[in-house]
Design goal:
This protein has ten helices and 20 strands. By secondary structure, the chain is of the alpha+beta class. It starts with a strand and ends in a 22-residue tail after the last strand. The longest helix is centred in the first third of the chain and has 18 residues, at about 30-50. It has helices at about 30-50, 90-100, 125-130, 175-190, 195-210, 245-250, 255-265, 275-280, 345-360, 380-385, and strands spanning about 1-5, 50-60, 60-70, 80-85, 225, 235, 250-255, 295, 300-305, 310-320, 320-330, 335-340, 385-390, 390-400, 405-410, 415-420, 425-430, 435-440, 450-455, 455-460. The chain has an eight-stranded antiparallel beta sheet with strand order 1-3-2-12-11-10-9-8, sandwiched between helices. It has an eight-stranded antiparallel beta sheet with strand order 13-14-15-16-17-18-19-20.
Amino acid sequence: MTIAQSRQSPEPGTNGPGAVAAPDEFAELLPQTRRALLRRLAVGQSEGRAPSMMGAVVRDGRAVWTGARGAVDGEAPHGAVQYRIGSLTKTFVAVLVLRLRDEGLLRLEDPLGRHLDGTPVPNATIAQLLAHGSGLTAEARGPWWERTDGGLRPTPADLFGERPQRLPAGRRHHYSNPGYALLGMLVERLRGDTPWYEVLRSEVLEPLGMSRTTLRPQPPSAGGWAVHPWADALLPEPAEDTGLMGPAGQLWSTLADLCRWAAFLLRGDGRVLCAASLAAMRMPAVPPEGSAWDAAYGLGVQLVRRDGRLLAGHLGSMPGYLAALWTDVDEDVAGVVLTNCTSGPVVSAIAADLTAIVTEHEPRIPEPWRPLPGPLDRELLALTGPWYWGANPHVLRLRDERELELAPLSGVGRSSRFRPEADGTWTGLDGYYAGETLRVVRDEDGSVSHLDLGTFVFTRGPYEPSEPVPGGVDPEGWRV
């Protein structure tokens, strides 16, 4: 058994006149936290009877704890040992698709057939494929695709049987591995027939420093095993090249690389994907299955609610391997688990527990408040403060990069953030007003009259007779 901690202090910086960033005195986890993390990993490996298991916690953009149990080739595994990550691959493919969207090469509302010929679901949208809402069959045609060579399915037509679409598109969530094979083909087509992994390597992996995330295993790597259900015996599992099904679960990676990926999913990186697109991945895109609405699927990421916290990430499973990565954006923390057995350990719960242990033992220290970077837009500043929707008081706040935030003063009601547009309006980013337009309406003399938010009028006073309230105000005004 080994435990390895990876800790780095942030570089000193400045923000505002004379404001120097102080050293992060909380970068080191407390001994009792580290012990609790190790115990959770050890219990998971022991009870799950895993030949080896690695775990990590990412906070504040860096790995703050890593641990390992068991052995690979007779030695304790370390952060550079590759494991197969299965369907965690889908999160990478989704980022490639969203990059194409951000470049204007496609829209998520586009039917797949507009960009890719000969598909079994030409009318399913790209968003539906990303969220497993296309109705496509769950698995590829033929023998168990995860355990057989991709050469058995050499063309796209070989992936599907007689009934490729099992449910109407857009109606239900139905997990589809072949759906992500089609998304991989879409990436290749729109990138000039470049193989999807080469696109991933150049556009995502290299910028993030993920040199040990590969299409095929590179030593050192952990062999995959099946564990006998009734005896402590092992059986080696095949590690086939799945060919066209690769975008559904082919990738191999390391604990160190997945910590970098978790940091990206938490904090983003403008070289790879803009913050708005990253946030869109975490929005539920199709209704969850079952009566308990505690799980859903976004654009390439799984979503779960656990003990009141929203976790976003993905699970991975291939013969001989299990993987889990969960991020808690509100707490800026992530948990990663890798193991080399087909079944046994509940890696989803282990990774979620790693995030919870850090959150509960050492709650996040808020970032220091800092003023907005200058210069200050005084016209926008004049818009801030109280506004009234009828008699309901709201407050408008100015955020960084000319963003606005509107919220009820009581804390109960509709609130949204708004992104500035080139035409002088703002577009809602979340909540009830997501996608709606906020306009500042001015009088003939240029002074601000009111705010128009999707036809709702917000005025500076509650039903003042002089305000432009639709339907007018009773001439006798307020009374007792």
